[in-house]
């Protein structure tokens, strides 16, 4: 496998988004939810047809002094070369990684406001779930709001189904159970989401954007990921800040407690 401190001009990840990445929470040097991150990276490589990284190479990304909370970002591209979109004859995948100190936005564990973005995600089942390097939809969606009081933006697909937030997955409570959108056509299958699904704490279902706005059956809403934990949503707004609806208090819900236990974060007291 090839590696470099700087990405060369002909790297296919830079030119075409031809690769995958992971963002991993490290606690005293130990990766949180590491089996899920490794599995998603491997799945992304299989979908894209990139040679899987050796376990020793991935483990080497974890080497370094262990000190408190950090975030490890791993980028794995097909490497350099190829004429246009054509694959190089003998690609040498490139592995890049960096660790940075981190502190979660603890103040958002008690509640946030989010907006519903106007951008709609394209449906492409082949790429659904994997964390590939082409995130232009998320970049454009993030441009839609500038207000400091909006913490995240929700994204629906071209059929009007809520899929995810720009950098987080979505969870909602309905009929006494917790749900997360089905990701069979687009969206990133987060590692915290995967762990909660495996434990049976959440189930998958479709959630229409109109239902989210209009139906009182959707009682509570969360956004979250494996780095920040779960943020309960107080209000849903337009990108300009106009109110769409409010949700019932969700800070301290058992779903947040379960998620934070997986990440090693404290939970807020709340429902049982």
From TrEMBL:
<keyword id="KW-0663">Pyridoxal phosphate</keyword>
<dbReference type="InterPro" id="IPR043131">
    <property type="entry name" value="BCAT-like_N"/>
</dbReference>
<comment type="similarity">
    <text>Belongs to the class-IV pyridoxal-phosphate-dependent aminotransferase family.</text>
</comment>
<keyword id="KW-0456">Lyase</keyword>
<dbReference type="InterPro" id="IPR043132">
    <property type="entry name" value="BCAT-like_C"/>
</dbReference>
<dbReference type="InterPro" id="IPR036038">
    <property type="entry name" value="Aminotransferase-like"/>
</dbReference>
<comment type="pathway">
    <text>Cofactor biosynthesis; tetrahydrofolate biosynthesis; 4-aminobenzoate from chorismate: step 2/2.</text>
</comment>
<keyword id="KW-0289">Folate biosynthesis</keyword>
<dbReference type="Pfam" id="PF01063">
    <property type="entry name" value="Aminotran_4"/>
</dbReference>
<dbReference type="InterPro" id="IPR001544">
    <property type="entry name" value="Aminotrans_IV"/>
</dbReference>
<dbReference type="InterPro" id="IPR050571">
    <property type="entry name" value="Class-IV_PLP-Dep_Aminotrnsfr"/>
</dbReference>
<comment type="subunit">
    <text>Homodimer.</text>
</comment>
<protein>
    <recommendedName>
        <fullName>Aminodeoxychorismate lyase</fullName>
        <ecNumber>4.1.3.38</ecNumber>
    </recommendedName>
</protein>
<dbReference type="InterPro" id="IPR017824">
    <property type="entry name" value="Aminodeoxychorismate_lyase_IV"/>
</dbReference>
<dbReference type="GO" id="GO:0016829">
    <property type="term" value="F:lyase activity"/>
</dbReference>
């Amino acid at each position: 496998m090839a590696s470099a401190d700087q990405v060369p001009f002909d790297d296919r990840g830079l030119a075409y988004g031809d690769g995958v990445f992971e963002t991993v929470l490290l606690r005293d040097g130990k990766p949180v939810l590491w089996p899920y991150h490794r599995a998603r990276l491997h799945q992304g490589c299989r979908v894209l047809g990139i040679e899987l990284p050796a376990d020793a190479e991935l483990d080497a990304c974890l080497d370094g002094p262990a000190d408190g909370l950090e975030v490890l970002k791993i980028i794995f591209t097909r490497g350099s070369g190829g004429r246009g979109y054509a694959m190089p004859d003998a690609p040498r995948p490139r592995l890049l990684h960096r660790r940075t100190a981190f502190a979660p936005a603890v103040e958002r564990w008690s509640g946030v406001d989010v907006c519903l973005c106007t951008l709609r995600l394209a449906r492409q089942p082949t790429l659904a779930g994997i964390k590939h390097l082409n995130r232009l939809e998320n970049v454009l969606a993030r441009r839609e709001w500038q207000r400091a009081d909006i913490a995240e933006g929700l994204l629906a697909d071209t059929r009007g189904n809520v899929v995810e937030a720009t950098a987080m997955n979505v969870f909602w409570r309905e009929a006494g159970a917790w749900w997360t959108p089905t990701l069979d056509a687009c969206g990133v299958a987060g590692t915290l989401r995967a762990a909660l699904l495996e434990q049976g704490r959440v189930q998958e279902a479709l959630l229409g954007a109109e239902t989210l706005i209009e139906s009182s059956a959707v009682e509570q809403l969360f956004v979250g990921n494996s780095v920040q934990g779960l943020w309960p949503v107080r209000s849903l707004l337009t990108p300009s800040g106009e109110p769409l609806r409010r949700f019932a208090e969700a800070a301290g819900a058992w779903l947040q407690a379960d998620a934070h236990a997986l990440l090693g974060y404290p939970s807020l007291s709340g429902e049982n």
